[in-house]
């Protein structure tokens, strides 16, 4: 579905770069140097990889190879310092990637806040896995776009490289968390997603323990994901306490209902101290009452889990209301009372349409800097 460009280097792994070096008559270790240049130094052109011989750089250029770094088309800066990037690829398609200094509290309780250093603290980058999304969750603005195409592994890594370069931040020295929670359903673009994870871990230097992927509930892929030797933490976008409401909010529930989803969740092989995260968007008088909270407690029984509550981030074309703070707190109280660590995610960048469920490539904003 995505146009894989045979001349783009970003997205190739160590072996593929070694093969490329050898194909043009260079020793295999030059592939490793290319790998370092692409992912650790994050260069914009092969010419900037100074430890490659001039002759190799020239060959790459003559044969039309390029890094394939996506372009930051626009940058919207929120009052709370969140930045929403509109990032464009070679074919003109674009996605959104969000930089959240200090995170949004979604990482609380999962161990990733351990070891925070003073000074520059931590940031979370939310990246996209598809252009648009086919899953059609009724509270999400991305759904209004439909799905245009999958992103390649290089395009997913490219979002991170572009944002890190813009912010002048370098993992692992600087503490960066990644969440695959932007546009798209990562488990419907599974192979590219997994390849991107490996490149981000081995190349860019972001540990898998600081990454989380969220799925709307693509059940067969949850089992596959549990078998991956290198994998982020898993978050399930739950959003309802029974099938009737979930099918209304997330049509995918017709294919994989709560029983199938919760069975997959229960069977998911958690690592020591790891918790399965459940994301729950609260919609006023739809899924946010105390009886709903008690149903959630029943669903999660026996799963080492934590819950992130998100009061709906409103937007044009979305027919639900944001619940009052009191309702959110009461919902949280029921879960906490049942022993489930439950956090309220701070809305980040709502004023620039950067918050959860708001990513729709909105460009008509007053406050932005290009
Ligand atoms: S919430 Fe996620 S899975 Fe659902 S439509 Fe939006 S982007 Fe797709």
Describe the protein's architecture and organization.
It is a single chain. This protein has helices at 14-23, 29-40, 54-62, 153-167, 190-204, 219-226, 243-249, 258-267, 290-300, 325-337, and strands spanning 71-77, 83-88, 94-101, 123-126, 130-132, 147-150, 176-180, 211-215, 233-237, 276-282, 305-311, 342-344. The chain is elongated, with a radius of gyration of 21 Å. Strand 8 (211-215), helix 6 (219-226) and strand 9 (233-237) form a beta-alpha-beta unit. The two termini are 30 Å apart. It is 30% helix and 17% strand. The protein has a 10-stranded mixed sheet with strand order 1-2-3-4-7-8-9-10-11-12, with helices on one face. The protein is built from 10 helices and 12 strands. By secondary structure, it is of the alpha/beta class. Mean pLDDT is 90; it is low at 113-120 and 364-370. Bound molecules: iron/sulfur cluster.
List the helices and strands and how they pair.
Blueprint: H1 14-23, H2 29-40, H3 54-62, E1 71-77, E2 83-88, E3 94-101, E4 123-126, E5 130-132, E6 147-150, H4 153-167, E7 176-180, H5 190-204, E8 211-215, H6 219-226, E9 233-237, H7 243-249, H8 258-267, E10 276-282, H9 290-300, E11 305-311, H10 325-337, E12 342-344
Parallel strand pairs: 4-7, 7-8, 8-9, 9-10, 10-11, 11-12
Antiparallel strand pairs: 1-2, 2-3, 3-4, 5-6
Helix pairs in contact: 1-2, 2-5, 4-5, 6-8, 9-10
Bound molecules: iron/sulfur cluster.
Iron/sulfur cluster binds next to loops.
């Amino acid at each position: 579905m995505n146009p894989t460009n045979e001349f783009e280097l970003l997205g190739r792994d160590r072996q593929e770069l070694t093969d490329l070096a050898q194909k043009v008559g260079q020793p295999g270790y030059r592939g490793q140097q290319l790998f370092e240049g692409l992912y650790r130094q994050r260069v914009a052109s092969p010419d900037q990889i100074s430890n490659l011989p001039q002759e190799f750089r020239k060959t790459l250029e003559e044969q039309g190879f390029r890094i394939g770094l996506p372009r930051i088309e626009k940058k919207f800066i929120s009052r709370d310092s969140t930045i929403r990037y509109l990032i464009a690829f070679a074919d003109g398609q674009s996605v959104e990637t969000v930089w959240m200094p200090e995170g949004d509290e979604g990482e609380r309780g999962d161990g990733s806040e351990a070891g925070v250093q003073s000074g520059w603290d931590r940031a979370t980058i939310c990246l996209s896995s598809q252009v648009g999304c086919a899953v059609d969750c009724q509270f999400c603005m991305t759904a209004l776009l439909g799905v245009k195409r999958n992103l390649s592994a290089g395009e997913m890594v490219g979002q991170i490289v572009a944002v890190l370069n813009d912010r002048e931040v370098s993992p692992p020295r600087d503490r960066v968390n990644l969440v695959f929670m932007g546009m798209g359903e990562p488990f419907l673009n599974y192979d590219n997603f997994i390849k991107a994870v490996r490149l981000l871990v081995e190349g860019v230097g972001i540990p898998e323990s600081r990454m989380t992927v969220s799925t709307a509930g693509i059940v067969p892929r949850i089992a596959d994901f549990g078998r991956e030797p290198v994998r982020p933490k898993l978050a399930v976008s739950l959003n309802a306490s029974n099938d009737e409401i979930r099918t209304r909010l997330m049509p995918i529930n017709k294919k994989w209902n709560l029983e199938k989803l919760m069975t997959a969740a229960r069977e998911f092989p958690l690592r020591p101290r790891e918790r399965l995260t459940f994301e729950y968007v609260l919609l006023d008088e739809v899924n946010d009452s105390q009886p709903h909270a008690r149903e959630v407690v029943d669903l999660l029984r026996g799963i080492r889990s934590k819950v992130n509550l998100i009061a709906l981030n409103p937007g044009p074309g979305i027919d639900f209301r944001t619940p009052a703070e009191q309702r959110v707190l009461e919902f949280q109280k029921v879960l906490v009372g049942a022993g489930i660590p439950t956090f309220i995610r701070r809305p980040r960048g709502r004023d620039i349409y950067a918050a959860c469920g708001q990513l729709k490539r909105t460009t008509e904003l007053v406050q932005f800097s290009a």
